[in-house]
Amino acid sequence: MRRRVLAVAAAGIGMLLLSACGVPGPPQERSVGTPVDAITCVDDFEVYEGADPGPASGVMPDDFAPVAVIRCEPNATRELDGGVVWSGMLLERFEGDLGPFLGAIAAPSDPQWPGPCTANMVLAPDLWVEGVDGRFVRLSYPSTGCSQPKVEVVAAPLAALRVVDEEFTPRAVIKSPEAEVAGCATRASVGPVLATEVDFGQTGEEASAQPESADGQIALIPEELPTLPSAADVQGLRVCFYAAQPGVAVETDGALFMDDRRIDPPDVATALAAVASAAPVAGCTETASRFAVVQPLPATAASFTVEFDGCRRVIDPAFRALAAPPALLALLDSAP
Description:
By secondary structure, the chain is α+β, with helices and mostly antiparallel strands. Helices cover 17% and strands 33% of the residues. The chain has helices at residues 11-21, 44-48, 99-105, 151-159, 177-182, 267-277, 326-333, and strands spanning 4-7, 66-80, 84-95, 120-123, 126-131, 136-139, 162-175, 187-188, 205-212, 218-224, 236-243, 255-263, 290-297, 304-307, 313-315, 321-323. α3 packs antiparallel against α4 and α6 (267-277) packs antiparallel against α7. The chain is elongated, with a radius of gyration of 26 Å.
């Protein structure tokens, strides 16, 4: 069974988790699951962002007669459509001798660990048991002393069962043969904008925020950022076009590769000059549904991103938000 770990990066959150796991005491009592008429497969990351978590999990009721185990894997991958790799939800049905599995998943949790715990949260696949009456119970995992699901405890007995049926629901393309041939990423997002309100001056250096100084002011130190290459050093521009898909957020999963083209001299100099002369822009929060990632060739220089709708920005190699000149949009988006 695949194990996925969500790292909590914020120091404040990490300290909160450490203190919460440091309380001594007995393991939290596991509730009894309630039979329901249908399985609801949920994505842990979507739940983390506020989606419906589905029915509460618990141990199997004593009077429940199980005939199969169902596993929901929200981040499974499958190669479909002639080499296109999709991510999506995989629903697997296991049958066989359920005894070892049921014994493992019903095992008591460990005593609460009184010391510090890591700030990682293990995201375990949803496991359900189907009853002879056609109803389902969402199962909870036994937990460690730090309240993490003990995925490894049920991995072996689950693997010993037979997969008798599976259903894969594609969600997003994650690997496209056409993109690979073009030298483009299959999916891309508009790069982060770091500097719409920071004065960069004429040095091309970022004013990086550091801890407060003794006088209470934020200390700023210069940090070298990528710059546009000279047109004389560029043999061409690889332009990879991306478009949003219905139901797929550009900010999280990115837009999908649609097409590519090559820009050769002297248009290279025209494009780079347009980016270099673009004015800073701020205050726009629209998400572009169509944009291009432009890679100078040879691919040793940093790329930049151009939005064709939304805010119509250029995100330059230093991640600054600039107003895309109309001439640049026309040049990149014209037919080869």
